[in-house]
Design brief:
Keywords: TPR repeat. It contains 25 helices and 7 strands. The chain has about 475 residues and is α+β, with helices and mostly antiparallel strands. Among the domains are: about 120 residues, no CATH class; about 70 residues, Alpha Horseshoe (Serine Threonine Protein Phosphatase 5, Tetratricopeptide repeat), CATH 1.25.40. Strands 1, 2, 3, 4, 5, 6 and 7 form a 7-stranded mixed beta sheet that branches. Helix 4 runs antiparallel to helix 5, helix 5 packs antiparallel against helix 6 and helix 15 packs antiparallel against helix 16. The mean pLDDT is about 90.
């Protein structure tokens, strides 16, 4: 199966799904996934523990899941966070509502159970869910646990604010003192009503104080995925060095290098001007010899190499073929200028590579102009003399052999073949252009053509 594909077990059959996206919202995580026939399923998690999955035709308006994808922290697949959710909860089994209800009763507090039931509004009749949640309230009230009962009232208020019972209970004088509890500071509220406190802190997460309180709560509960998602949200909203370093610390602590880089790459596409992140990725790509990604980063106008990066990049370029990469000439010029500025001894080799790349799409006058700024600084380089010679003799039919040999130096074999062919036609008894053509075709792996020129070369030598 592909990276974002997985199996969901529904009773005795397995359903192959591919994840589309996931959202982290309050204490829940939800993965949206599709079958090959475009049927949609929603996998529900509570604090990163899998609950069940439902097939859906549509989402109820203003339902928990709709809010989760609008107000939550959403990640498009493929994404390491989605893989971690799926891989840490095998096997993924879809269970009925009755089975889920029993599971919630056995695994979670009654307040958590009531809150989780609000996730299901798009799949189970709202009245049935309301009755189930309100029955928890009545149990608390019968037992004289009015404070716990009022916590359930708060959940009902968020779930069905206009319901007659909810309005009646929230205005009941018997519960006024418990209502006043919700005016306390979030720190005190977390201890008394953790579900409501997290909901409040999440809604105020753009405030630095509430962000810190929410992240502290995630850390206490070891909810590392939620914590990383929260820091990603903050970094995307207002990129700062401190938030970036805090996120990087979390990623280094909880993800392997491959997943960490994938997460950072996805972030970098959303904040391409945040250079601290671009430089981190650049260093990673250099260390892993990922030239394709290096060139993508260096194409961004805002990105500039430091001296250390220039040295590392220059060492890498020494042994690397630039030709497969469609670098814009000005970007290539900028890269070479930076490296050569710090390390002039690399100029001859790097500029030779650059010219070899540029000659694939540009003529000699353009190359000379492109090199002019380098020539002003280091006019002694033999490269410039070769390019000047090529430019001067490019139209001189008497110099086709020399021109062809220079083109070979820059691995421009098609142009070299053209030059040597002219030389053969103008000087049919000369062996040298025939030998050059034989060598080029041999280099290109065209053995039949090379053998033909070898035989011609032998015949010319016999006639000499």
């Amino acid at each position: 199966m592909k990276q974002d594909e997985f199996l969901l077990y529904d009773y005795h059959k397995s359903i192959q799904l591919h994840a589309e996206r996931a959202t982290f919202y309050l204490q829940g995580e939800i993965i949206e996934a599709f079958t090959n026939g475009q049927e949609v399923y929603y996998l529900l998690f509570f604090k990163q523990q899998f609950l069940t999955a439902f097939k859906a035709k549509s989402l109820r308006r203003r339902s928990f899941i709709e809010k989760a994808f609008k107000q939550g922290m959403v990640f498009e697949a493929p994404h390491p966070f989605i893989e971690i959710l799926l891989d840490s909860n095998p096997p993924l089994k879809s269970i009925s509502f009755n089975q889920l209800n029993k599971k919630l009763q056995m695994t979670y507090t009654l307040q958590e159970k009531a809150f989780i039931l609000t996730f299901l509004e798009s799949f189970i009749q709202k009245k049935q869910l309301f009755d189930e949640i309100s029955s928890i309230f009545y149990d608390y009230r019968r037992n004289g646990q009015l404070s716990m009962g009022y916590q359930i009232v708060q959940i009902l208020k968020g779930f069905a604010p206009n319901h007659r019972l909810v309005k009646q209970l929230t205005s009941n004088m018997e519960y006024i003192k418990y209502a006043n509890m919700y005016n306390q500071t979030p720190e005190k509220l977390v201890a008394k009503d953790p579900v409501f406190a997290e909901k409040y802190l999440y809604s105020q997460k753009d405030s630095e104080q509430h962000f810190q309180q929410l992240s502290s709560q995630y850390e206490k509960e070891s909810r590392w995925l939620d914590l990383m998602a929260l820091f990603i949200y903050k970094l995307l909203k207002t990129p700062t060095t401190d938030d970036y370093r805090s996120l990087l610390h979390l990623l280094e602590k909880h993800l392997n290098e491959k997943d960490r880089v994938v997460v950072l790459e996805k972030i970098s596409t959303q904040i391409p001007d945040f250079l601290l992140l671009q430089k981190y990725l650049f260093d990673h790509y250099v260390s892993s010899y990922n030239m394709g990604e290096i060139f993508k980063i260096t194409k961004r106008q805002e990105f500039h190499l430091s001296e250390n990066q220039a040295q590392t990049f220059g060492d890498l370029l020494n042994d690397y073929d630039l030709r497969p990469h469609s670098l814009q000439p000005e970007m290539l010029k900028s890269l070479m200028s930076t490296v050569i500025k710090f390390f002039p001894e690399k100029a001859e080799r790097l500029l030779h590579k650059s010219v070899t790349t540029l000659l694939q799409a540009h003529e000699l006058p353009y190359i000379k102009e492109w090199l002019s700024s380098f020539k002003e600084v280091q006019p002694q380089l033999s490269l410039f003399e070769k390019l000047d010679t090529m430019y001067e003799i490019s139209e001189d039919l008497d110099q086709m052999q020399t021109l062809g040999e220079l083109y070979v130096e820059f691995e421009q074999f098609d142009k070299a073949i053209e030059c040597f062919s002219w030389e053969m036609e103008l000087k049919p008894t000369e062996v040298k252009p025939v030998q050059c053509l034989m060598n080029i075709y041999r280099e290109l792996g065209m053995d039949q053509e090379a053998d033909a020129y070898r035989h011609l070369c032998i015949n010319l030598q016999r006639q000499a």
